[in-house]
Amino acid sequence: MTDEAFLADYDPSRYPAVAVTVDVVALTIRDGALHVLLVERGEAPFKGRWALPGGFVKVGEENLDQAAARELAEETGLRSPGRVHLEQLATYGDPGRDPRMPVVSVAYLAFGPEMPDPRAGSDASDAAWTPVASLRLSASGAQPPGVTRRLAFDHARILSDGLERARGKLEYTPLATAFLPETFTIPELRAVYECVWDEALHAGNFHRKVLSVPGFVEGTGDTTASGGRKGGPRARLYRAGDARLLHPALLRPATEEDIR
Amino acid sequence: MTDEAFLADYDPSRYPAVAVTVDVVALTIRDGALHVLLVERGEAPFKGRWALPGGFVKVGEENLDQAAARELAEETGLRSPGRVHLEQLATYGDPGRDPRMPVVSVAYLAFGPEMPDPRAGSDASDAAWTPVASLRLSASGAQPPGVTRRLAFDHARILSDGLERARGKLEYTPLATAFLPETFTIPELRAVYECVWDEALHAGNFHRKVLSVPGFVEGTGDTTASGGRKGGPRARLYRAGDARLLHPALLRPATEEDIR
DNA sequence: TATGTTGTACTCATATCGAGAATGACTCAT
DNA sequence: ATGAGTCATTCTCGATATGAGTACAACATA
User: Fold this and answer.
1) CB contact under 8 A, B245 and A258
2) Phi, psi at residue A133, to the nearest 5°?
3) B25: number of CA atoms within 13 Å, CB side?
4) From B12, B16, B75, residue closest to A59, measured CB to CB
5) CA gap A212, A201 in Å, rounded
6) Are A192 and A29 in contact (CB under 8 A)?
7) Could you tell me what percent of chain A has a pLDDT over 70?
């Protein structure tokens, strides 16, 4: 930004009326399916429709990361700042994305282990973890059978961008562990990849790969107390290692359509 | 964002005085070195220091991408919207990042082939392509010998984030071609990777790899008119292919420090 | 013409990947 | 208890990718 431009607008009354908000795409895994945290709007516009949790940034008092963490905790009644990974996703500022006024929204992406049901915050009439598969994310494209909901504002696009980011980050960072509790088994880690990528993975190869990437996981020496629900031996327990990047990366099988 | 929060702030006079700007990290390659487009500030604060080009978003009239493209063209006198790749980088909103008032800046990353010298825009006292290596990007860390400049505001951090993004994108997208003209040779493409990554690459292996990734480049059937400056045969010419992702990726050699 | 440079194509050993199968340890229904 | 089915973990094997080095012909320069 240049100085003259600032001086020309230095008088606050001359600013365009812009609101800056944060919206959070909070993802977790429940019952083997990817879920996103949504709140139900109690007022127009989009009354009764579901939206991403979010709110105004207290500009000058907090930074954007703090605002996102505050919204995630405050508006849904989830405290648990502990093991939640939060990162900036992208910023959306198209004219008309809010019918009432110009709004620039900084979207955040949050990954966390299975969390309790949220309570509705002061602003939302309801809040719930919602299966991503039950949402209509684009006008075109195949939709799952059953109930499909359309999100308020441009939140379908934001969620869609967040999912794409999450899918990509699983390839070259150890963030999949952010969806799991402190200790976990390799098959649980594989389940994270499978439900975020929506692809079945080869159990043996996945096992070999995870153990071969330095710093991805480290063994605890323990095993689960019993076998799985449907049988099978006890599994060894691991915790997240100290790697920030997976090298070599754990590439998802790419299709021609992804590439072109 | 929730409805009640909006209603509470519906009166524009109650908005906090937030300015929304775009800043552009425009990268190109000149004389075998990575350069970034900077403008010299003509007024306080940071008068005489260099900064990223940027300016206010005309909220409600244009979207963020358009604002970034406009700033890149307008403030520097570079029109050339043609072959420039522009993508959103991140958003910066820490309190105090501008000493005068709260400012939220949406940063963009631009890649382009070698471009003419900019002329100073209406706001900047000067504008120039500056070698990235000549800039002091962090307080700590090794600095190159010779002139090092410190950027205004938090622009060193933004540039640093932009460089890291660029380095990563070269691995799994064909964006290196955005630094080159319509047709180019494989050694020219290798030079892009080498100067963005700041690492020497094995010529033979790079050649094999580029040709083996589907859709990365396609041959034109032509060759350069003559050999290189210091000799060597004519090189075959290629143009960018239709791939949006490189599969398998062209991974840069990772060091232990990158990973942990 | 001699010399050095370099684009491109090899070779070869090693690492990684995808697919499948073997081995037990476990759960559950009978 | 017992048998059937499930599944964590480890192997094997062929296909593919990678890193390092060599070969050679085409080119610029002196």
Assistant:
1) yes
2) -65, -20
3) 27
4) B16
5) 17
6) yes
7) 82
Instruction: Give me the residue label for tokens 């992406």.
Output: A109
Backbone torsions φ then ψ of A132, nearest 5 degrees: -60, -35
Task: Report the alpha-carbon distance of residue A41 to residue B5 in Å, rounded.
Answer: 11
Structure-token pair, residue A98: 């809010």
Interatomic CA distance for residues A75 and B10, integer angstroms: 19
Q: How many whole angstroms separate alpha carbon A260 and alpha carbon A256?
A: 6
Are B45 and B97 spatial neighbours (Cβ–Cβ below 8 Å)?
no
- List the single best residue of A6, A87, A125, A245 to mutate versus B (max B Cβ within 10 A): A6
Q: Report pLDDT digits (tens) over A165-196.
A: 999 999 999 999 999 999 999 999 999 999 99
What is the C-alpha separation between B216 and A181, in angstroms, rounded?
A: 40
For chain B, what is the total number of helices (H) and then of strands (E)?
Answer: 6, 12
DSSP of B186-254? HHHHHHHHHHHHT----HHHHHHHHHHSTTSEEEEEEE-SS-BTTB----EEEEE-S-SS-SS--PPPP
> Model's pTM, two decimal places?
0.91
Separation CA A244–CA A228 (nearest Å): 30
- Kindly state the tokens that stand for B249: 């990726």
Residue-wise pLDDT tens digits, B131-170 = 999 987 765 555 555 666 799 999 999 999 999 999 999 9
The answer to whether the CB atoms of B93 and A3 lie below 8 A apart is no
**Residue ranges of chain A with per-residue pLDDT less than 70:** 1-17, 76-82, 120-124, 138-148, 257-259
